[in-house]
Amino acid sequence: MRSRSRRGQMTDSDGGAGRLAAAISRHPREFVGILMATMAIFAIFINALFLQRGPHPAPIFATRPPITQATAVALPRPRALAPPAVAPATVARSQAQIIGDIQRELARKGFYDGAADGIWGAKTDAAARDFVQAAGLKINTDASEGLLRAIVTSNAKAPSGRAAAPAPVRNDPIAELIAPTKQVLAIQRALSDFGYGQINPTGVYDAETKEAIEKFERDRRLPVTGQISDPFVRELAAMTGRPLE
Q1: Which of 94, 173, 209, 214 could be 226's S-S partner, Cβ–Cβ 3.0 to 4.6 Å?
Q2: What is the 8-class DSSP label of residue 82?
Q3: DSSP secondary-structure letter at 47?
Q4: pLDDT of residue 7
């Protein structure tokens, strides 16, 4: 009896396995789908029960924790260094200051007897020329720092009593008209300096001065008169850059 029952069980199991194999062979895709679904369900249960470390939901398979980027720390910006202090350049002196110093130095050496007003007039111009001649220098007599240095460093002095010599008393009206004047002297020197003739600066209006004035008037498109007129004096003063007293 027992042997028969065992044989029956074996026959039933073999039959079940055969039927399962026959079903798989007839429907292989369905079997694969059922098998994958079963494995997925099994993986979900395993994950839910054993693999989750954090709160639900969590990934089915554990992954590496994301790399936390270091928080950028705002560093204080370096302070810009202040540029080194530069000593201010020496302020250039005005022309009036230079002329005033020239007048004072010329007066100290006896070549000038006027006021140190900073104005380059005929008297200052004549004094500067007398100094250059007395010192034996060959420099420009225009108002400049170079002329001032030459006066300061030179030992030349005017003849004694030159600056304080009184003007001669004139009683002749005709002689007064033809007497040397500072304005004519300044005009003659300016015309000579700018190439309008070899004029001897005597301060007396003569034929050479008249010819030089006419040449200047033609060059500057002025009415040619040869006379010391106001338009002529203004034009010559503008060209030389100094007043003609």
Answers
A1: 214
A2: P
A3: I
A4: 55
- CB distance 106 to 127 below 8 Å: yes
Transcribe 119-175 into DSSP letters: ---HHHHHHHHHHHHHHT-----SSSHHHHHHHHH----PPTTSTTPPPPP---HHH
Q: Is 109 exposed, middle or buried (0-12, 13-18, 19+ CB in 10 A)?
A: buried
Q: pLDDT value at position 176?
A: 44
The model carries a pTM of: 0.36
d(CA 197, CA 188): 9
Structure tokens that stand for 49 in this block: 């029960």
Domains and CATH numbers, the chain: 24-62 (no CATH), 95-153 (1.10.101), 173-240 (1.10.101.10)
Does the pLDDT at position 101 exceed 90? yes
Largest distance between two CA atoms of the chain: 189
* Structure tokens belonging to residue 232: 């002529």
Please provide the distance, in angstroms rounded to a whole number, between the alpha carbons at the two ends of the chain.
165
Instruction: Report the distance separating Cα 214 and Cα 85, nearest Å.
Output: 59
Q: How far is CA 150 from the centre of its chain?
A: 35
- Better-predicted residue by pLDDT, 42 or 119: 119
Question: Is the pLDDT confidence value at 231 over 60?
Answer: yes
Q: What is the pLDDT of residue 190?
A: 86
Dihedral angle computed from the Cα positions of residues 195, 196, 202 and 203, in that order, rounded to the nearest 10 degrees: -120
For residues 218 and 232, is the Cβ–Cβ distance under 8 A? no
Calculate ∠ Cα 181-123-96, nearest 5°.
145
Q: Where does residue 197 rank: exposed (0-12), middle (13-18), buried (19+ CB within 10 A)? A: middle
